[in-house]
Records
---
Amino acid sequence: MSSLFYVIRKQFMNIFRGLAQKPLALVGYILIGVMMVFVAVVTLIMPSGLVRKVDNEIFRAGVAATACIALYLGLRQGIEKGSTYFRFADVNLVFTAPFKPSQVLLYGFIKHIGTSLFIVFFMIFQIPNIKNNFALTDYGVPVILLAVLLYSVISPILGMVVYSVSSRSNERRVLARRLLDITAVLVVLFFVLAIAMTGSFTGAFVSFFGSEAVAYIPIIGQIVTIASAAVYGIDLMFYVSIAVLLVLIGLFVAIIYNANLEYYEDVLSATDELESRIKAKREGRDASLRKGEARKVKGGFSSRGAKAIFEKHMLEYRKVSFLLFFDSTTVLIVLTGVGTKFLMLDGFSSIFFTLFLSAYLLFFFIVQGRWPLELEKPYIFLVPESNGKKLFYATLTENLKNLLDGTLLFTVAYFIYGTSIPVILLCIVNYTLYGAVYIYADIVSRRLFGSIHSRVMLIFVKMFVSLFVVIPGVVIMLIVQGITGNELYSAFSIAVWNLFAAMCLFLASKGIFNNIETT
């Protein structure tokens, strides 16, 4: 064990030394830390139930449903490739060290604790939404974060235990996967049956996932009990659940440490797949790495200069999209955006909730889109065109996709909300402009900060710059809405600001092609 802790200690020292050699990265992390502390303080002092006070039973049922889905996905990953907690750097360092296989797994668990803490930090940003809709107790926020932390710690350990058992033979792996899938199908069927019996989705959801029987399901029951203390208060079962989870964590770690495992071949294969997924995600390609039949499309390059970049992007979209620009991303945004209508009470339902939620999701798709891949290739810098023209055509496909996605989303929203056509048209324009703001804010971030120390920090920097640009438009909209009470004027005010912001960011982004080192 001494050699294992020596390697971990050295890695931490190398991280701090690396930050000391990169002052910009260190300043960025300090700013992120300050922002998180600020959000945490605001979250703790803000009152609960500002927007509405949803029944506590819905909170309990929601936690149970979320825990069930997360546990299923975690176990499924554990059965198939429980060793995906490693990167190639870990393989080169740890696999050549004098460690037992069980210690290698333990190393993966210790590294995953950092991911668990990041999940907790990300959860801090979601707490205001919870406090706006539920009446939390004074200690509700720490209780929720504790539940998230415990689950994020125990989930990968459980996945490792399942992997250590199922990886001994292919038959065991197939059997474990089938048992897990059958259990999931039965849960869905019983839930559908509950909906049919009650005639109400909300009633069935509360009665099924909020049942007292859920408290007796291992891990899920303990997580639900701990999180529910945020609205019901702390009782004896709260401490019992914490103790049970800590005992399970210790038990699982002991099982992993004492298991006689020989799994290096599977680890190398899974690590290679993980690295391929990460690379594909960074390049804006399909991270699922599905090996489907390549779609043959007819077309060629009839344009010259910067327009050829646009034609290239169009051909790439035709190969992977269902129709035009419509793909799985479109389906996800439309379903999530329209689903906002059914999550809000009638008195608070507004098409602006759909606009802002879909714009929030759009940010994460934009920062991992296709166009940044062009900046990693030299030919775009050598095209004999103006910087503005190259930037326009390099990002045109993304803007067109956002326009068509927004058209589909708010066409459906028109029939659900029953608002006026001018408001719908302005919402489509706003959605497209939000995408443009994110794209050009991304480029401005690259010009300001250059190469970023880590991808996590890169996303935070882009989010900070985008929020700095977008928030004034939201404030203006709230002021206009408060004065006029008219949705059309409010949507128009956002459109004016977003158009102004997108144009300014576009002009500030043109210089990205003057210096190839900034990419």
---
Amino acid sequence: MTDQFAPRLIFWETTAGCNLRCIHCRRLDVADELVPEDLTTAESKALIDQIVGFASPIFVLSGGEPLLRPDIFAVARYATDRGLRTALATNATLIDRPMAQRVVDAGIRRVSVSLDGARAKTHDTFRALPGSFVQALSGINDLRAVGMSVQINTTVARHNIEELPDILELALSLGADALHIFLLVPVGCGVEIADKQTLRPQQYEDVLNWLYERDQEGRLEIKATCAPHYFRIVRQRAAAERRELPPSHARWQGTAATTSRGHPSGLHAMTKGCLAGSGVCFVSHKGEVFPCGYLPARAGSVRERPLREIWEESPVFKELRDPELLRGKCGICEFKRVCAGCRARALGTSGHYLDEEPFCVYEPQAWRQAVR
């Protein structure tokens, strides 16, 4: 396996249990508590051993809600002691000052917190829990008080598109180091709200251009997720404006560089668009391996085969690594090696992960010539 296809991000769904019921959740079967199928502590540590045996990715503890696991800090400490750059993805509603300190003590490098609105009503409606906005802000403040780097994750949909500028300002006021914008993917619960909440393709384009402009300001780390066509926009605009590519597109090189707020910058894995199966993989709470958390194309299980074998030999992963297999507009697009389209959105819309990205307005040069 070459460095070109080394895993840069590995997400582990620590549990299917969660204390929220988000209306856009990629899971349909969210439990109120831990479930018997969750990897045990021993299995979790074995997974970490497998990862460090062949790669050095950013290791993200996700969920569900990972803080429901009583062993989460012991597992995080094990990962950091084994040399993994470890991050925690949480809704932050369970975090108080003592727990924030435990996050630090576990060696976790960054905590990502979901904020889906600049106001309580917007966020709480999406998260299906009144008071979750205030609780999340409190958790973020406790994390910042103990010096933890915080990343804000926002899923953009029709209900909050007008609040994006305010969400950015909120992230800055909270002392966040990063704002990651997610475009809604019609999977899990997201299928049920797709008709009412999915942006139109031109709205996606407008949001991504706005994001590019904010990235030029350099006030915090900006990233578009599940929006690979952002990388086309960046290159188009950088060329038109005779700019260098934004610093946020540089691959982490293991240096001591820091963010504008002084935290280590080795938690950025952006180099191109869709990395599902080529730079990213997702391990479910019961050990199943997928290209990403939004792409339900099973590649194997760590309870059956070593992760390295799955990563290197899975037919699903091999297909996703070959842009020549892309179909429709994506297959003939001059930006396909930069963007590749969202494979999860393609699957959710047309039924196959190699089909074209359904929410991209760009017409490839070959496409325009063919229809003349």
---
Amino acid sequence: MADNNYNPNGVDDDDEALRIAIALSLGQDPTIATSNAPVDLTGPEDDDECHVVEPTVNAKTRMAAPSNTSAPAGSSYIPAPSQPAVSSSYSLLTGLDRKKMEEERLARAGKKRKADDQLGSAGEGGKAGRPHQRVKTESPAAAAAATTAATSATSATNPQTKSGISTEKSGNGELPFPHGVVKRTWCNGQPRTGDDIKIEEILQKDKLELAVLSSFQWNEEWLLGKVDIERTKMVLIAFARDERQRQEMQNNVPRSRIRFCFPPMLAMGNMHSKLQLLKFEEYLRVVVPTGNLMSYDWGETGVMENMVFIIDLPKFESAEQRDAQTLTPFAEELLYFLRMQTLDEKLISSLRNYDFSETSRYGFVHSMAGSHSSSDAWKRTGYCGLGRAVTALGLQSNDPLQLDYVCASIGAVKHGLLRALYYACQGDSGLKEYESRATGGKGKDITKADDDTDVLNQNIRVYFPSLETVNRSKYGKMSGGTICFESRWWNAPTFPQQVLRDCRSTRSGVLMHSKVLFATRPSADDSSAFAYVGSANLSESAWGRLTMDRSTRAPKMTCRNWECGVLVKAGSPGEHGSGSSNTSSSLSMFEGVVPVPMELPGLPLAKEGARAPWFLQDNF
């Protein structure tokens, strides 16, 4: 039944709904307010990151689970907290005296490494003037159990443990991924087929010198177990709700080893981008994952999978080579994005020491929190930036498209957003949807609008799990705590229900936190197809909205979230794993280039019942 209080243009009381969901997930009476300080879970109406419960399972639920929700054969038993852990508004590295811990550790080692002159001040400027992001930390018990299982499970349960990582000679030595690669994250209990990768294989802690990391959610203890803090300096691009919390975060870490960058934020929105810049002796690794820095997002609990783009860029041997480099569009947008996040300028400039030429076949797509009204700014970000990247790769066309979009969260979507994304994937600047919307109120032909909606419904498929799929996953509904959608949005008369399909992973019992969009043209050859892999879910918060600036009467792009992703052409060469193919004929052009993680064709979701979408709040 539709929510009679649904407000398609306003901000509803998400606070109360999420408070009730938290109470139910903890077995508490939702009508009784707790005595603790309230967790600030306020968000915009189409907030696509309504995280409440970690994807873990308590012992009672695990024991009572039916056979179709039990762990796959060969997977390790993973202890978990007796209660599902609730999302915290308290941010990264607070409440733990990291400074003291790491200084003691360094003292015991009897050495301190020389400060890296690239680190600088690490962009500690930038305003964070809103209290609404929920930065969740994973429970230590769950992380420790997951790490233990991860270190022992692979060799014991999977005789085939090839990582698919090889090295290739480049100008300055051997690079594992000189041409770029897209892989699925490793998942505990699943066979390794060559198209997956572990976070340890990405970070290479024994070689890593500097790591610039960003994430929406963090588990600091788990992360510091993956990095050698004595060897590696870190810059963390993170959210803090105010100056006091910034100072607390900075004071809790050894400043010679860990620095922070706090991107500017709107009053509502999320620092949702996931980006890793990893400096090794001879090369820079650029990593764009769909998952956060949490153990379960990297497969260690065996319940969740993600995807990740990786490319290794060799270091120039001389200043002359550096100065002669013409940056690719990928590099230009990456540096622009980092600069807008207020990362230290010296660090950004140091990226020019690396050869970006191999990124010419890729596009870097981003959304930047804020309103962007200059002609240069609005065209570069949100879905306008997506269209710009499509055109830069020579993939623009007015031919009909088929879009297959896997996402982990969905906002209060209307056909207008689908239309904007569809046009952007054709290479449009954003003006086509903007101008049609601007004239719609002045007698736009209704029949034409209806025909356009029919085209969208027939050519766009959005993959999101059903209640049945979540219940049949490895640990049932306790695995679905970071997969977010609300029944009030689904039941809104403006929501395009026809486009949703059940998202089932080709890995049995595993749920997906991946964000990947496949774009194909049935009338063209396979080389015109491409995929987006990144952090953006299906919402206006993620992709933005182009409107008219009231003062200048010019277009203005407004995004609530920070997001980033990569466009990959179907014909891109690379070191892509040759894992077992589960690709249907409609997406076969991506085989060996971008893994297709979902079963095809996806079944349409039902309006209600087991085949209805998974609604997080309705199930806790």
---
Amino acid sequence: MIEILTYISLISGGLLVLLLLAGILSGLDLDLDFDGADGDGGVGYVKGGLTFISIGSWVVKLVLATSASPVVAFTAGIIAGTIAVYLLIKFMNFLLSQQSEVNWEARDALFETGQVYLRIPAQGTGIVRVNIRGGNRELKARSQAGEILPTGLKVRVEDVEDGILVVSRV
């Protein structure tokens, strides 16, 4: 019985590690993920099942090696497998919550303050640095009042026209 549990835990654990590595290294996801009723997604049935079987069978094996009662061993295995799946779900949700939105557009700079990077002539365009979604972006800009804005001046983005920021002195 202990030998069978060892094979089950090694095979399921190995498959789980291969699936996780394939997902991390190549973006490959051969999992069956179905959204829950509240749309929060999940770990997936395959990874969750492999985690349950792997951890549960290891715990059953350990308890059987130290205790003679199979009922206690299988109960401990079910509890340990359930806890492992729960912890895996919480861990994956934490990792997914740490993702940042990397897509941005010029309109995201509206009403933000920035700094003139390349002088803005009275009737032309220059470049300003503005913090958009956590990153400093350099965008073309023109003066709202039609005045010269020197390098290093603090400005505020008032509007966006055809991808060019319209800025004014702060």
